[in-house]
């Protein structure tokens, strides 16, 4: 396997940042899924899914606009900065700019409330929404990803 510990950026001023990762989640991943660092594997930048609320090992959000999927044990691409659709729960989000972190539902995000934002790990922040979602049957939302 090639060295996948790299960030793919068109230019230093480009707000679209991507990185390759190795899917070690045990299942296929799709566009918009949240991926965290698999710390149990020290051989490279292995990613997995999480159900840990406020997980601070965020790697990024799966970037797969062709909807081909990223098979388990395959290399894929994560967005670490820029606009992208991501997977959310069935909640309503009526305010643009709400901050999001990993949720207890695998592969999805949840909002940070004002009372919890002060206690959230610094690395847990994934980004903020750029549109409102009032339909609770919709499970995706456009957001600005900004993983540090």
Secondary-structure map with pairings?
Layout: E1 7-9, E2 17-23, E3 34-37, E4 46-48, E5 58-62, E6 75-87, E7 99-102, E8 109-111, H1 114-117, E9 127-129, E10 140-146
Short description:
This protein has 148 residues and is mainly β. The protein has 1 helix and 10 strands.
Descriptive notes:
The protein is mostly beta strands and 148 residues long. The chain has one domain. 3% of the residues lie in helices and 35% in strands. It is built from 1 helix and 10 strands. It has one helix at residues 114-117, and strands at 7-9, 17-23, 34-37, 46-48, 58-62, 75-87, 99-102, 109-111, 127-129, 140-146. It is globular and about 40 Å long. The two termini are 25 Å apart.
């Amino acid at each position: 396997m090639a060295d996948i510990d790299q960030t793919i950026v068109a230019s230093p001023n480009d707000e679209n940042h991507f990185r390759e990762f190795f899917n070690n989640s045990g299942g296929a991943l799709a566009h918009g899924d949240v991926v965290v660092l698999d710390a149990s594997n020290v051989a490279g930048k292995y990613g997995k899914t999480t159900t840990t609320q406020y997980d601070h090992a965020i790697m990024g959000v799966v970037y797969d606009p062709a909807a081909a999927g990223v098979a388990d044990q395959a290399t894929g691409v994560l967005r670490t900065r820029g606009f992208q659709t991501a997977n959310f729960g069935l909640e309503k989000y009526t305010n643009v700019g709400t901050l999001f972190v990993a949720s207890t539902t695998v592969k999805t995000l949840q909002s940070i409330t004002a009372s919890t934002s002060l206690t959230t790990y610094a690395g847990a922040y994934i980004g903020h929404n750029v549109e409102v979602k009032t339909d609770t049957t919709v499970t995706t939302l456009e957001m600005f990803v900004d993983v540090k």
